[in-house]
Amino acid sequence: MAKKKDQFDKPLAQNKKASHDYFIEETFEAGMVLTGTEIKSLRGGRANLGDAFATIRNGELFLHNMHISPFEQGNRHNPTDPTRARKLLMHKSQILKLLGLSKQEGYTIVPLKVYTRNGFAKCLIGLGKGKKNYDKRESAAKKDAQRDIQRALREKQKISR
């Protein structure tokens, strides 16, 4: 019997800073248009979403500043720009919804994760609202408090055994 897979396969690249800098209110899944050597490099884990962002131009969604290192065994005569704008594939209604939501003050489209599903590269993008510095401190305090609670529960369980 085949093993049931998680909702997403193992992430190939993740933007961990996004949850620190933004309140993610809604997420969308988009396909990615990549060249053959880019997908090979991506599967090798040679991608970075650190400074990436998404924009909508002429009714199409593009991912900017995502760095995918060139594939070393690939065609050396066809070098591509590692940070070129890559097209994201979504339904027109989803793009229009995302466009309307992102036009509101303080909202932006943030790439969260790149992974493969059924052999195709997918990008999880989120609609994010920027956090202020005091919001970041509040989130860190909540995270620390939750960690302390979990630690105390583990200690209590060890003592009761």
In words, what does this structure look like?
The protein is an alpha+beta fold and 161 residues long. The chain has two domains: 13-130, Beta Barrel (Small Protein B, Chain: A), CATH 2.40.280; 133-161. Helix content is 32%, strand content 33%. The protein contains four helices and nine strands. The strands form two sheets. It has a seven-stranded antiparallel β-sheet with strand order 1-8-9-2-7-5-4. The chain is globular.
Fraction in beta strands: 25-35%
Quickly give the CATH architecture of the largest domain. Beta Barrel
Taken together, the total number of domains comes to 2
Task: Please give the order of strands in the largest beta sheet.
Answer: 1-8-9-2-7-5-4
Computed structural class:
alpha+beta
**Residue windows where pLDDT falls under 50 for at least 5 positions:** none
Q: CATH superfamily of the largest domain, please?
A: Small protein B
Order of helical and strand elements: EHEHEEEEEHEEH
User: Treating each run of at least 4 consecutive H or I residues as one helix, how many helices?
Assistant: 4
Residues in helices, as a percent range: 25-40%
How far is it from the N-terminal to the C-terminal residue, by CA? 37 Å
The name of the CATH topology of the largest domain is: Small Protein B, Chain: A
Question: How would a textbook summarize the main sheet?
Answer: 7 strands, antiparallel
Keywords: Cytoplasm, RNA-binding
Main location: cytoplasm
Subcellular location: Cytoplasm
Pfam family, one: SmpB
